[in-house]
Amino acid sequence: MLQFRIIVVIVACKLAASDLVQGQHHQRLRANIFNEPTDAAEYLFDTSNADAAVDNSTDFCQSIVAVAGTKLPDYYDDTSRALQATEDFEETFLCEFSDGQSIPLEGTSEQIATLRHQLHRGQLISSESTFDMPNANFRTVGRGYGRRLEIPAGEKVVVKSRGRNGRNNGGRDLAVLEGNKPVLAVRVIDSKNAVIADSAATISDKIFGTYGDSATMTSQFAACSMGKLNIINDYGKSNNDKWKDIMVAPGVIEVKIDVEFNNKKATVRNAVTAAVQKKLGITLPGPFQQVMYVLKECTYPGDCGWAAYAYVNSWNSVYQRNYYKYVGVQVHEIGHNLNLAHSGGLDGATYTDHTCMMGNPLYSDSIGRMCYNPAKNYQIAKGGSGAKAWYDDLATDIVEWNPTSNGNTWVGDVIGVADYNHPNKNNRPVVLKVESSTANDVFIGYNRASGANADNDEADNEVTIVVSGNNGLGYSQSSLKATLKQGESYTFVDFKGAGIDLTITVNAISLGDNVYPGNASISIVYGTVPSSPPPSSSPSRLLHQVQQHLSSRIRILQLLNQ
After folding, report:
1. Mind listing the pLDDT tens digit for each residue in 196-231?
2. Collapsing DSSP states into helix, strand and coil, what is residue 505?
């Protein structure tokens, strides 16, 4: 209903008509919105529309959408080469319409900070929540695709959840983590015929591996999910038949937009959405769970420091230059679509956790074998969005421990993601969560650099300790606190506010082999740490090491006797 309310008031303001006349126009525009979505977008983005007040007596904003992205690695101004400190790389927000279009939300720094605070604490769920401010005087500002929505200054920001049925997706959960995930890529041509040099066939290969590319988001999601998530470009027989002449390569269409790339990113994005909907005759996302826009470039001053950006818990991601083809950028942005937040590193920066694809990703076309950190893996497995996945086959795959008394200990082994399907994992967890009695909990994993995680960029074969909010169940910035080698420890001082410390010690690390998976033996003490750490709870691993030693001695003796 977002378009309906905004459009009606614009018309009413122009006509300065009575309530009866407004009602007549309500009915006319209502018919256009629900029966002719392309025409509705023309009403909304009519460039003759002036700034106008918004009728928000009911839900005028279908959903608030958070936008998160990846910085350009060469994040500099093209003219001065100076760092663009003015561009904000924390989440921004949009108000989304039922026809796939959206307009940026603007407010005071305090209001935007409030939205971010609510987002990371689960009070605002991107693409599911809307405003609960019936008496606030919202206004639209600007014209055409560049229209914006202003939150009234001085108003307290209040949101409410509409649930997935209130989302712009026909009630479908787009953050699907298992099964087939239909994805569409769009090669965009601007009004001056600027277009990325890569052909549609190349784009198809770099995303889907259509012509043999082995390093794609399709291959990496399959690897990290243990084959449970399949990226596909099959949209069902009726759609495939209907669009067979529109698809210029498997999973790829081309559209021409009526604006240049030298515009704000929201303007370009809305122009692409309108063009795609017109070409396919649908309202996005339609049969697609994710839609990727591929642009030649973004050149608007102060709004183009991104390699890519995505709508959180939603269907859209946008890429400029060659970044669409980098596996790390693809998996990072689709991660945002799957409701994953950024991962901060040891330096406290927003996304410098290089043990996780939601940290600063790998900027490479051929290197991309890397998955997520323990906090993200917990969120995926426990299903904060209602879609449990990947690491949930056994009750022991994710272990939760809540120390309640001074002297409580936990001793055990954890395995890496790459060894999740190892036949002899023997109930070893892939994530250990330590409950803090707050929303900010501790997540521990073994960062085994092999298999799906072979190209990991930090702390190879070390234990990683991550803190994340929202109880690990929803969108929340995570923070890497420590990476530990064998024999090292990390202590959370006054862990639960009761004057008791929590100390995590890595007793042993094994890289594993064909018989036993790589694993890390860990002991955790809530209270005073004993002079020597508790023994490993893995006698099977110790026995295996003894067997290896004996086998080596026997082999030496055999060689000497030859």
Report:
1. 999 999 999 999 999 999 999 999 999 999 999 999
2. strand
Question: Averaged over 526-546, what is the pLDDT?
Answer: 59
Q: How far apart are CA 107 and CA 154, in angstroms?
A: 9
Entry pTM: 0.84
CA distance 439 to 121: 8
CB 480 within 8 A of CB 466: yes
Q: Distance (Å, rounded) from C-alpha 269 to C-alpha 304?
A: 13
φ, ψ for residue 82, nearest 5 deg: -95, 145
- Alpha-carbon separation of residue 207 from 204, 230, 296, 319, 438 (angstroms): 5, 12, 16, 12, 40
Question: What integer best gives the mean pLDDT of the chain?
Answer: 83
Backbone angles phi, psi at 376, to 5 degrees: -65, -40
Average pLDDT of 436-454?
97
The token pair that represents 230 in the structure block: 């399949």
Query: Are 120 and 90 within 8 A, CB to CB?
Result: no
Measured at the alpha carbon of residue 349, what is the angle toward residues 343 and 354, in degrees to the nearest 5? 45
Distance CA 365, CA 296 (A): 17
Altogether, the residues listed in the chain come to a count of 562
Q: How many CA atoms lie within 13 A of 471 on its CB side?
A: 11
Radius of gyration from C-alpha coordinates of the chain: 26
CA distance 17 to 316: 38
**Cα–Cα distance measured from residue 170 to residue 352, given in angstroms and rounded to the nearest whole number:** 36
Cα-flanking dihedrals φ and ψ of residue 98, to 5°?
-75, -10
Predicted local confidence at residue 66, as pLDDT: 97
**Residue 5: pLDDT over 90:** no
DSSP string, 260-310: -SSS-HHHHHHHHHHHHHHHHTS-TTTT-SEEEEEES---STTS--EEEEE
- Torsion 261-144-251-326 (CA) sign: positive
Q: Do 458 and 483 meet the contact criterion of CB atoms below 8 Å apart? A: yes
User: Taking 70 as the threshold, does the pLDDT of residue 65 lie above it?
Assistant: yes
Contact between 470 and 118 under an 8 Å Cβ cutoff? The reply is no
DSSP-derived secondary structure letter, 389: -
Cβ-based neighbours of 497, under 8 Å, separated by 6 or more = none
d(CA 468, CA 36) in angstroms, rounded, equals 44
**CA-angle at 112, arms to 109 and 114, nearest 5°:** 110
Burial of 148 (0-12, 13-18, 19+ CB in 10 A): middle
Q: Which residue has the tokens 């689709």?
A: 334
Query: Apex CA 226: angle with CA 222 and CA 332, to 5°?
Result: 50
Give every CB contact of residue 296 below 8 A, 6+ residues apart in sequence. 188, 190, 194, 195, 196, 197, 261, 320, 321
Which of the residue ranges 42-46, 242-246, 344-348, 456-460 would you say has the lowest mean pLDDT? 42-46
